[in-house]
Amino acid sequence: MAELTGSILAPEGWVSGRVTFDARIAGLEGEPVAAPRPPFVLPGFVDLHVHGGGGADMMAGAAAIRTAAMLHARHGTTSLLATSVTAPVEETAAFLAAVAEAAAADWPDAACVLGAHLEGPFINPDKLGAQPPHARPADPALLRKWTALAPVRVVTFAPECDPGGALRAAIQAAGARAQIGHSLCSYAEAHHAIACGCGVTHLFNAMTGLAHRANGIAGAALAHAGFAEIIPDLIHVEPGAILAARRAIPNLYGVTDATASAGMPDGSGYRLGGHVVTKRDGSVRLADGTLAGSALTMDQALRNLVAIGLPLAEAARRLSTIPARWIGALDIGTIRPGARADLVVLDDALAVREVVIAGRSLSAVAEKEG
Prior knowledge:
GO terms for molecular function: N-acetylglucosamine-6-phosphate deacetylase activity. The structure is a single chain. The chain is an alpha/beta fold and 370 residues long. The protein has one domain (45-332): TIM Barrel (Alpha-Beta Barrel). Helix content is 27%, strand content 29%. The protein contains 11 helices and 21 strands. It has helices at residues 62-73, 89-104, 140-147, 166-173, 187-195, 217-224, 239-248, 298-307, 312-317, 321-326, 362-369, and strands at 2-10, 13-21, 25-32, 40-43, 45-50, 52-53, 56-57, 77-83, 112-119, 152-157, 177-180, 199-200, 227-230, 251-254, 267-272, 275-280, 283-285, 291-294, 343-346, 352-357, 360-361. The strands form 5 sheets. Strands 3-2-1-4-19-20-21 form a 7-stranded mixed β-sheet. The chain has a 6-stranded parallel β-sheet with strand order 5-8-9-10-11-12. The two termini are 23 Å apart.
């Protein structure tokens, strides 16, 4: 039985003590503490929107998914969704076959792949953002074929391209979460989709905005959404807008939207599906300057959220507990007996010092393999 000691973020708050575990958490002992001190033991981060990392684009197959999952694990992500870009039908099917392989694998040195996030292709072709130009009309039958290939947990779609709601219904019937994104829909259309159980993909980006006489998805999300993802790299969304969203949306959670460039040096030649992108000064862009995903990792997302004023406990839960709850994965994103032993240990600078995935320490795995 392994153990970690420090200030532990339990569901009820900080506990100064120890957590014991094998593949699952066996026990948590200690005293409640109002002012935690390092080392901080947090639930492992759960990233529901990841395109790549470590130089690998997840559309390139299972080996690429593993490379990206290894990179993000070193930054505290213990579970993730491999995320697609819009692509031809056969390429999306190949991506899902690779996700199925990755989800069934037992990689000791990589984040657990919970399944897929399909970011398109059922999006508005006039609001692609950095998505390749392969948007398709809503096709519930095709969606059902794809969900038979791999565990699809999230699908981003444009409600105005699904006026009867048949695609949304097919997504939800498959057990996945439907999210609004890459869309030009009206406030009324967005409000209806949210009322039908939809979340929101990368809030404020690639969507109709918020204006006091011309409201769109962003306004509907602030008024009505229970869950929404946001990219806290402080490039996609400025701090004040993050704080406004946090105040309005109870279950706002962070994602990286990371590309192959995450964890890599500045330069060009990184892939994002069918696009080539350039990383420079912390951002990732197409040749025309359009933001194309990010180079963010979840440990940096945590530091960014704390830097703009969130308490550490809240920031951690918005990167672990809340996204896990959104997809119904109640045995991760939390430190309690019976939960999977996914843990990240941070020092006083909020730098990662240890990562544990399903009870296995990444540092111990590296030493064994070395």
